Amino acid sequence: MPNEYRLLIDGIERAGSKGEAGDIVNPATEEKIGEVSYASAGDLREAVDVAARGSREWAGTPPWERGGILKKAADILRTDLEAAARTITREQGKPIAEARVEVERSADFLEWGGEQARRIADRHVAGRTRGSRMEIQSHPVGIVAAFTPWNFPMALAAKKFAGALGAGCAIICKPSEETPGPVLVMARALLEAGVAPAAIAVVFGDPEQVSADLIAAREVAKITFTGSIPVGKRLAAAAGAEVKSVTMELGGHAPVIVCGGVDPEWAADMLSAAKFSNAGQICLSPSRFFVEAPIAERFTARFVERAKALRVGVGTDPTTEMGPLANRRRVAAIEKLVEDAQSRGASILAGGARIGQRGFFFAPTVITDVPDEAEILHQEPFGPVAPILPFADEAAMLERANRPDFGLASYVVTHDARRQRRLVDALQYGVVGVNGPVTHYPEAALGGWKESGIDTEGGIELLEPYQRTKLVYLQ
Predict the structure, then answer these.
(1) Same domain for 175 and 306?
(2) What proportion of the chain, given as a percentage, has pLDDT over 70?
(3) Confidence class for position 3, pLDDT limits 50, 70, 90
């Protein structure tokens, strides 16, 4: 029986008023596995009106109580982890082991948001006249409109729910229509835990219509988005026209610097595992591999060996190490990047093509001899393709590594402490992974530089993007 996902407004799941719906496709089989109901302009208006009421109710809930509710929601998610993970794998395609980790991390974010809610505190500053003082208060910003992607459909939404609900805001979330189930699973856990029904809404529909209507709504105070740079720019421009604050986690194109003093086989094993996780569909994914000349040949040989040995298959198979790409668009995009590089003289040492005719599988791919003008060095690949770029001159390599407008993640692999510090300081990125992969845990603030983002998510700063300050002078 195909799943039917509906709008969630005021604690009730219902179809959109126009009766329109979109298909949900299993990326491993290309079979239709469900439908998702689309919201009309009237449905979105209702979601905003309900959220206005929910915002007042939830903001009035003491932070200590909000913290307990978010902790309970995290526990509910952990209890139902296996079912939630299977929902992710069925709709997004990643191996079930990776989906389980995503559910656990989502629960961690909700719990962290609850813990930070319990730390909300005003502060006082002594006044400049006798008997006076100043009070700096933190208040929830109001209704939050959140737009979340398909690559980590639960975890990337959980960051936003944790920050908004922890701060006392109501949230209206529009997930990807291709992966609607995981956010609804999380929203149900939050409602079961005790979040005010009016404080949570989940809506689907035409992305341009939904974003335009929510951003334009006077009651919506905050926009938060995770996704591509072009879409983020459009949403930020629309929010700017309404003088509304934004948090943006946008695309990346992470350079990896592998220095000559390391074991090249160890480095290739570690980095290939990071590269092909979630089929490379991660903003933090290593994607341009600068390898120092003395070890480049051995590193490349081992990376190719690991790519060819990777078990690609259906995510529900416990032996699968890499699942399919999420949709047909990603297959076409990766094919285009590989063909462009090859046409400019690049050599394909592993993969380079789609696997089979059923499902959106693409072989783990390694390419070398990649010229600077190849599109794959300028566009975020967001797929299982690794260009390996030997270097001899560190300064010239750093100029190439920092050249794109991307500034999310980067990597350094070296055991030379002095060189490690020099490279970390030189990289113009918001995140640097040293001798290991990067994972966003809730206790750390993460954000991109340059065009890769605005603001951060996580850490002790988790609630700050969802709060506003009131200064009170007391005489």
Answers:
(1) no
(2) 100
(3) confident
- Measured CA to CA, the distance from residue 17 to residue 26 in angstroms comes to 26
- What would the DSSP string read from start to end of 309-331? H--B--TTSTT-SB---SSHHHH
Residue 406 CA to residue 475 CA, distance in Å, equals 49
CA dist., res. 323 & res. 280, Å (int)? 10
Residue 8, phi then psi, degrees to nearest 5: -115, 110
Instruction: Label residue 7 exposed, middle or buried (CB < 10 Å: 0-12, 13-18, 19+).
Output: buried
Catalytic annotation, residues: 249, 283
Alpha-carbon span 8 to 177, nearest angstrom: 14
What span, in angstroms and rounded, lies between the C-alpha atoms of 121 and 127?
Answer: 19
Residue among 40, 460, 13 nearest 201 (CA): 13
Predicted TM-score (pTM) above 0.85: yes
Nearest to 146 by CA among 121, 132, 119, 164: 164
Over residues 407-437, the pLDDT tens digits come to: 999 999 999 999 999 999 999 999 999 999 9
- Of the candidates 297, 307, 296, the one whose C-alpha atom is nearest the C-alpha of residue 269 is 307
Residues 312 and 217 in one domain: no
> Rounded mean pLDDT of 81-86?
97
Q: Are 316 and 331 members of one domain? A: yes
pLDDT band with cut points at 50, 70 and 90 for residue 377: very high
Type of residue found at 371: P
Do residues 231 and 346 share a domain?
Answer: no
Encoding tokens for residue 409?
């993640």
- Contact yes or no for 23/180 (Cβ under 8 A): no
Residue span of the structural domain in which 373 resides: 254-434
User: Are 206 and 246 in the same domain?
Assistant: yes
Q: Are 398 and 297 in contact (CB under 8 A)?
A: no
In whole angstroms, give the CA distance from residue 305 to residue 325: 21
φ/ψ of residue 435, rounded to 5? 60, 30
Is the pLDDT at 1 greater than 60? The verdict is: no
Q: Return d(Cα 176, Cα 271) in angstroms, integer.
A: 29
Taking the C-alpha atoms of residue 43 and residue 352, their distance in angstroms, rounded to an integer, is 44
* Residue 175 and residue 46 share a domain: yes
Question: What single string gives the DSSP state of each residue in 226-285?
Answer: ES-HHHHHHHHHHHHHTT-EEEEE----EEEEE-TTS-HHHHHHHHHHHHHGGGG--TT-
User: By the 8 A CB rule, do 277 and 309 touch?
Assistant: no
Q: What digits encode the pLDDT tens for the residues 131-183?
A: 999 999 999 999 999 999 999 999 999 999 999 999 999 999 999 999 999 99
Spatial distance between the Cα atoms of 309 and 288, rounded to a whole number of angstroms: 21
